[in-house]
Design brief:
This protein is α+β, with helices and mostly antiparallel strands and about 475 residues long. The chain has 4 domains: about 1-55 and about 145-195, no CATH class; about 80-135, no CATH class; about 210-295, Signal transduction histidine kinase, dimerisation/phosphotransfer (DHp) domain (Helix Hairpins, Orthogonal Bundle); about 305-450, Histidine kinase-like ATPase, C-terminal domain (Heat Shock Protein 90). The protein has helices at about 1-25, 25-80, 140-195, 210-260, 270-295, 310-325, 345-360, 420-430, and strands spanning about 105-110, 115-120, 125, 305, 330-335, 340-345, 370-375, 380-385, 435-440, 445-450. The strands form 3 sheets. The protein has a 5-stranded mixed sheet.
């Protein structure tokens, strides 16, 4: 009983491995090609032997007739081997005909009266009267030809069989090698994909070819690299969110505990400070919600025909009080003609508000922040330029990343959430535009937004506008 159980336990993995192999792409491709090769070569072999055999038999029959009709009479007449040789009429009879007691299987050369000779299979000649042997003649009789033909047919069949077998073996080996070259990279790609699925985002495949399989490997490596980058950003974002939330929550907790213990009076100033922290947290949560919607493709906009000049005027007017409090000159420079764009007025106002607030935060008192519009044949360009300390050139590519920590001069300790520029990029791209940053030679930082120019001019204020939802 134990031996039976052990036998079954030992064979079960082998059967599973065999089942997996039978389902593999390599086995199916190789098996299909092998079956086609064997069928094709087998069909060619059968056709060759069948047609060749028929042609050879016909050739033998024709050759035998010619030998009997031409060679035998000539030998009999020239050799003078018998008493009736010069005057013996030669008539061809079937090879298996027995003439006047002659042995069967020979070639009968007689006339209707039985006068003539019989050429036996061994080459001897028998007279029709007394069967006495006469002189041997050099005649290739049909039986000898048939024997040699049979040998030739066997040689041809053996040669064709060996040739077909070698060709089939070479075809099988070539197909096996070819499909191994195809399936082996796929197996490595499968292993790497399983590692990525298991959490190892550093898994990559080695690219050894430049064909379709190699391009699949390149695409996989690119995907794995992007997943690794996104995972790093996610971890960094979670850490930054925890850090950003921890500081105001700690301050609020300490102040509330101090008020509860009557160590800190619940004065309007203290309550206003707590209220400010709550508003900051609310803005951060709202910004994170907006970014998550944008990442999921669920952020909706209500596009309408707008004038970028009016958007800038409204944004500057809303931020003027804040600029005056900071001692910064906030100015607008508008294009000399309408700047029609199609977009969501609320979302574009949020873009301008984030950019202006960011510039006001880092521009020293007495300096200027300029918001301008420009129009060309295809685009409307909105620019926000400040005269602050600027950033390092190395920080420009990452300036619109979430919670990016670049120049300490632009620290979030000055009131920013670290998400404003990231939101700007998401909203601008949602409108089909582009955003970029540049460092002017005179200093400061310039953020430039490029939006597609609307085909027609915006409708006048007061008229109903067509509003659609994407």
């Amino acid at each position: 009983m134990r031996q039976s159980t052990a036998w079954g336990t030992g064979w079960t993995p082998r059967l599973l491995e065999l089942r997996v192999m039978l389902r593999s792409l390599w086995f199916r491709l190789t098996g299909t090609v092998v079956a086609l090769v064997v069928f094709t070569l087998g069909l060619a072999l059968v056709a060759t032997l069948f047609i060749g055999g028929r042609q050879l038999a016909q050739f033998i029959q024709n050759t035998s007739d010619e030998i009997i009709q031409i060679t035998a009479p000539t030998e009999l007449l020239d050799g003078g081997g018998g008493p009736n040789a010069p005057d013996t009429p030669i008539v061809v009879a079937p090879a298996d005909t027995q003439i006047n007691g002659g042995p069967p299987g020979g070639v009968a050369l007689t006339d209707g009266a039985g006068n003539g000779v019989v050429i036996n299979e061994d080459g001897s000649i028998t007279l029709n009267a007394d069967e006495s042997p006469v002189s041997q003649i050099n005649v290739q009789i049909p039986a000898i030809v048939q024997s040699q033909a049979n040998q030739l047919a066997q040689d041809i069949g053996s040669t064709v069989l060996v040739t077909v077998s070698v060709a089939a073996l070479l075809a099988v080996l070539a197909a096996t090698w070819l499909f191994w070259q195809i399936t082996r990279p796929l197996a490595r790609l499968r292993d790497a994909a399983e590692q990525v699925a298991g959490g190892n985002l550093e898994a990559r495949v080695k690219i050894r070819t430049k064909d379709e399989v190699g391009r699949v490997g390149l695409a996989f490596n690119h995907m794995a690299g992007e997943l690794q980058r996104q995972e790093g950003l996610r971890k960094q974002m979670v850490a930054d969110i925890a850090h950003e939330l921890r500081t105001p929550l700690t301050v609020m907790q300490a102040n509330l505990e101090a008020m509860a213990d009557e160590l800190l009076p619940a004065s309007p100033e203290e309550l206003a400070g707590l209220h400010h922290e709550v508003l900051s947290l609310s803005r951060m949560v709202e910004d994170l919600r907006l970014l998550s919607l944008a990442d999921a493709g669920q952020l909706q906009i209500e596009p309408a025909r707008l004038d970028a000049n009016e958007l800038v005027e409204t944004a500057v007017r809303r931020q003027s009080a804040r600029a005056q409090a900071a001692g910064v000159r906030l100015e607008a420079s508008l294009a000399g003609r309408p700047a029609p764009v199609e977009g969501d007025a609320e979302k574009l106002q949020q873009v301008l508000a984030n950019l202006i607030a960011n510039s006001l935060r880092f521009t020293p008192a007495g300096r200027r922040v300029l918001v301008s519009t420009q129009v060309n044949r295809q685009n409307v360009i909105l620019s926000v330029a400040d005269e602050g300390p600027g950033v390092d050139a190395a920080d420009l590519p990452n300036l619109f990343a979430r919670f990016y920590k670049g120049d300490p001069a632009r620290s979030r300790a000055d009131g920013g959430s670290g998400l404003g520029l990231a939101i700007v990029r998401q909203l601008v791209e949602l409108h089909g535009g582009q955003v970029s940053a540049a460092l002017p030679p005179a200093g400061g930082l310039t953020i430039r937004i490029q939006l597609p120019l609307a085909v027609t001019a915006p409708k006048r204020a007061g008229l109903p506008q067509f509003v659609s939802r994407r």
